[in-house]
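Example A, followed by Example B.
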Amino acid sequence: MKPTDYNMKKTFVYLGFGSNLGNRVENIKQAIQMLIEEDKLMLTCLSSFYHNPPLGGLTQPHFINAVGLFVTNFSPFELLERIHLIESKLGRRKVRKHWAARPIDIDILIYGSIKIDCDDLVIPHKEIKNRSFVLLPLLDIKKDITIPGLGKASDLVKFLKLDDCKKIVNI
């Protein structure tokens, strides 16, 4: 699918946020603020924040993660461009080691009920079913959420180790 294949109706989109450098919570809040500055994206719900270790075995600070539910007029590809711009403005380097520490990471997790699988964009996010720090915040927002092509998040989360992913109560 190309950007022109989508009409400009309003669509629900779930975005995942992560940060493990600097003031992690503020980085996420700033990214959300920058996203909603345009009229094409409106935050409707934000999950709790979660604290979890980094993936990939590199020695680095733990992550803070959250998920936001937005309504958008952006096509998936326009949204991806906007996300990359914001990540860059917040200090994320394009060229970095895989799994490296970063001030912000924003992923399109779910975009309506569509599925996209191309070089630049995979929706639902290709690792969504393997990440407690994504599934738990999704369930905070909507207990019965179904991930297109994968099933209910409440079923998927049963197969994951949850010990290392902790909800942050006081921020």
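Example B, a separate protein, is given below in the same form.
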Amino acid sequence: MIVEVDSLGSGRYLEALAVLRAAFETVREQFGITRENNPHYPVYWGVGDVARAVSRPARLLGVELDSVLVGCAFVGPSTRREGCWELRHLAVVPEARHLGIGEALIRAATEGAVSDGAEVLRIGIVAENLPLAQWYRRLGFRTVSQGESYPPLPFTVDHLELPLRLSDKSI
């Protein structure tokens, strides 16, 4: 299956919000996330939160299957670190997982980062979500910090990075 990734404009924010809520609900249940301990978690977002995430600045990427949005992610340059792009809130609805949608979103994020001259693509994940960490490692990400605590979150955070090779295509 060929998976195509598109940039989504503000007219698609409501659809992206539905994807984020559906995808992150499974993690919310698994790791005890509540509105009280993580009010900024995507399950609790409104359309304005999607707009704020895009204004970081970031691009909102999306994938459709049969004309229905089933995956999305935010990607853009880090405001804290030169040469780094951040991938945030990569989400695939449960019924569309394991079809290559997440990998396609990461490929598109990587292409954008490389074209902007970034050296690394970075993401933060729930450290206790071991299957997710393994998935990112299979895709080439390396753990650069582990078990960071951000009270009152009920979980710790690992930061992973994907090194980007800028000159390989000229070989």
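On Example B: The first strand starts at residue 5 and ends at 7.
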